[in-house]
Write a sequence for this structure.
């Protein structure tokens, strides 16, 4: 589903685009090359590619699979997509922060939050996480080129210890792929599982100030093409107040 000139939503369990466990997965089309933002849970990875084909997408190749974090609904499909026999995905490099790379490669169910997610009925008991080695471990604020776009990895721990938001700039656009760090309305992805920390959120959320974001593409719920920075600013403000800030609606989201 094309949602902006160079942005496609290629997966979403919430919107029925792909497997029910999948987060929102996006494709950034930079012309000469493309990047997939998150990879879904991995139960039906081919659906992401089928959605692109249905939209008539002919650009490529997909050079990057950029993971916001290693939780199952965002990263469980990374291995299958990188090893896909589809020519536009073969050889795509998986990139994430160093901490999330450790979880992607060998994280336990406790470290990945899967133990509580299964116990909470969010994932079925037979769900199997596909570990894989990342190709690139991103430094904080490291920049990548994706065709005509510059993409900066902004590390914002809180939802998980190494969560990353990706700021893409080019073609007059400033857009943020925020994973589960910040959602529409300024809610945050604070949860009761290993590695999720209100203190980390307080220390790191200020990194999302002053970015001038127009389009905001989170990992769940609504997205917006205009005024994205207002939602980031609301999250920053909420984390400066006395009460625990508003968090996501757990009954409608995965980890």
């Amino acid at each position: 589903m094309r949602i902006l000139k160079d942005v496609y939503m290629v997966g979403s369990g919430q919107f029925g685009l792909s497997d029910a466990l999948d987060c929102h997965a996006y494709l950034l089309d930079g012309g000469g090359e493309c990047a997939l933002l998150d990879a879904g849970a991995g139960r039906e990875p081919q659906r992401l590619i089928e959605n692109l084909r249905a939209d008539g997408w002919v650009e490529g190749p997909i050079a990057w699979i950029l993971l916001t974090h290693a939780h199952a609904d965002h990263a469980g499909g990374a291995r299958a997509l990188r090893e896909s026999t589809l020519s536009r995905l073969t050889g795509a490099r998986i990139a994430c922060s160093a901490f999330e790379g450790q979880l992607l490669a060998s994280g336990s169910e406790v470290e990945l939050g899967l133990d509580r997610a299964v116990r909470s009925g969010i994932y079925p008991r037979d769900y199997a996480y596909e570990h894989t080695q990342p190709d690139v471990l991103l430094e904080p604020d490291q920049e990548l080129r994706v065709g005509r776009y510059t993409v900066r990895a902004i590390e914002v721990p809180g939802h998980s210890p190494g969560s990353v938001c990706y700021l893409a700039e080019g073609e007059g656009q400033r857009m943020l792929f925020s994973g589960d760090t910040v959602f529409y309305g300024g809610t945050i992805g604070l949860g009761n599982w290993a590695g999720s920390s209100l203190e980390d959120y307080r220390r790191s959320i200020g990194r999302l100030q002053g970015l001038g974001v127009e389009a905001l593409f989170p990992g769940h719920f609504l997205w917006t093409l205009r005024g994205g920075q207002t939602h980031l600013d609301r999250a920053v403000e909420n984390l400066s107040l006395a009460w625990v800030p508003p968090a996501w609606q757990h009954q409608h989201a995965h980890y």
About this structure: Helices lie at 46-54, 72-75, 78-82, 98-106, 114-119, 198-204, 228-238. The chain has a mean pLDDT of 94. The first strand starts at residue 2 and ends at 4. The chain has one domain: 2-252.
